[in-house]
TrEMBL record:
InterPro entries: DNA/RNA_pol_sf, RT_dom. Residues 1-244 form the Reverse transcriptase domain. This is Retrovirus-related Pol polyprotein from type-1 retrotransposable element R1. GO terms for biological process: DNA biosynthetic process. Pfam families: RVT_1. It comes from Eumeta variegata (Bagworm moth).
């Protein structure tokens, strides 16, 4: 355990959290969307881990389809929220056109903080001059503002970048690995310069470099360097909880998903017996809410990996274990019979169903890029492309701050005569619907 492994948690009052929420709404309404990079998928309405994975995997699959390579550097910025320079935050806010009053308020919030650490009867208090508050309402947006400068610079150079908070993947595609390595090295130099400006650092030892492609013969090339350190070429890398292998077979990811789900099942198994413990509906709830999300995490990009029988059997064993615990059936009961009793779909069809649902949701927000190959062909593959309605009942959440009520403050005489609060709510007061409801709340 090292000092950098500790994370100071900010236990602020609800008043400060409310103020930060108001400032968050103000900043999001002030900053023009055209100034923000579309490569950031964290802490942004309408974007998520699914959109980040879809963007990166779609880029790799497109290069594979045309017989090219894709070189990706998976980076993790060390202590991003703890070490970022507050002056970098201030500079990024000013560059985005935020008013000086808000910038100065945020600057004082970041630079005039104290942290108290207690171990036993000993306590130490220190002033904080770096980072953003861990657990702060405004911290995620401030980080997006800081990293936005890096993402915009890479976007300007037409370098594919996918970022989710402090996890960043830089991808370069082409037919010649040597030229791709030099282009990626130039992008890494930009990352290093940006990190020095913001008081941050990308550890070369933790940066994973993977060359994706379908060709068995790869021309020799020298890997790129980061801060003078030669990056080691790996066959696989983990990004946003999903394991990417160099040929996108997803075998390692399937095995990891199955092993993690089995571990979760055995943790829950202690409370389940044939004649005691949780009822069948309780076991099914655990499967739907705990095991299934672990098993099919990120399935939108790897649903095709369940077509091979060997991969499908790994998931069937997990589902079969839950089915036996639920029904209390004998271990010799066929898997298909257990699935029929519980009205479960086969695991490969379940994966397609979940992937199609995600694709439809992303289509409604404009974040889905359909293609006739790879994971993005799920809608055509599932046969639902022709039955998709023009309008889907899903949209990106947006704050609606229009006031739909009127506040009248009575004088002292009226309060004495009428010791009640009358709240008049008229949802159609602007449209003249003439519908009103009155709530009578007693004052004590």
């Amino acid at each position: 355990m090292e000092a950098k492994d500790y994370r100071p948690i900010s236990l602020t009052s609800f008043l400060l959290k409310t103020l930060e929420r108001i400032m968050d709404l103000h900043l999001r309404s002030t900053i023009d969307d055209s100034y923000l990079s579309p490569s950031q998928h964290a802490y942004t309405k309408g974007r998520s881990v699914e959109t980040a994975l879809h963007s990166l995997v779609g880029h790799i699959e497109k290069a594979n389809h045309y017989g090219n390579f894709t070189m990706v550097a998976f980076m993790d910025i060390e202590g991003a929220f703890n070490n970022v320079d507050p002056m970098a935050v201030v500079g990024a806010l000013e560059q985005l056109g935020v008013d000086q009053s808000t910038v100065q308020l945020i600057s004082r919030m970041l630079m005039r903080r104290t942290i108290t650490s207690r171990i036993g009867a000993t306590s130490v208090t220190r002033e904080v001059c770096r980072g953003t508050p861990q657990g702060g309402v405004l911290s995620p947006l401030l980080w997006n503002v800081v990293v936005n400068r890096l993402l915009m610079n890479l976007d300007f150079l037409l370098i594919k970048t996918v970022a989710y908070a402090d996890d960043v993947a830089i991808a370069v595609s082409g037919g010649h690995p040597e030229s791709m390595a030099r282009q990626l090295e130039y992008a890494l130099r930009i990352v290093s310069d940006w990190g020095q400006h913001c008081g941050l650092r990308v550890n070369p030892a933790k940066t994973e470099l993977v060359l994706f492609g379908r060709k068995y013969k790869v021309p020799p090339f020298a890997p790129p360097k980061l801060d003078g350190v030669l990056l080691a070429l790996a066959n696989r890398a983990k990004f946003l909880g999903v394991i990417f292998d160099s040929r996108l077979t997803w075998k390692e990811n399937i095995r990891a998903r199955a092993a993690k789900a089995i571990s979760a099942i055995y943790v829950c198994k202690r409370a389940i017996g044939r004649t005691w413990g949780l009822r069948p509906n309780g076991v099914l709830w655990l499967y739907e809410m705990v095991v299934k999300p672990i098993l099919f995490y990120g399935v939108t990009v790897w649903w095709q990996a369940l077509d091979p029988v060997s991969n499908r059997l790994l998931f069937e064993r997990v589902a079969r274990t839950v089915a036996i615990l639920t029904t209390g059936a004998m271990r010799t009961t066929p898997t298909k019979a257990l699935f029929a009793i519980l009205n479960w779909l086969p695991v490969d069809l379940t994966a397609r169903q979940l992937a199609a649902r995600t694709a439809l949701r992303l289509c409604a927000t404009g974040m889905w890029n359909p293609r006739p190959w790879g994971h993005a062909s799920i809608l055509e593959n599932a046969g639902v492309r022709d039955v998709i309605p023009d309008l889907i009942d899903y949209c990106t959440p947006k704050p609606f701050l229009t006031r739909r009520f009127i506040t009248s403050i009575w004088d002292e005489v009226l309060w004495t005569l009428h010791p009640y609060v009358y709240i008049r709510m008229d949802p159609g007061w602007e449209k003249g619907w003439g519908v009103a409801y009155t709530l009578r709340i007693s004052m004590s």
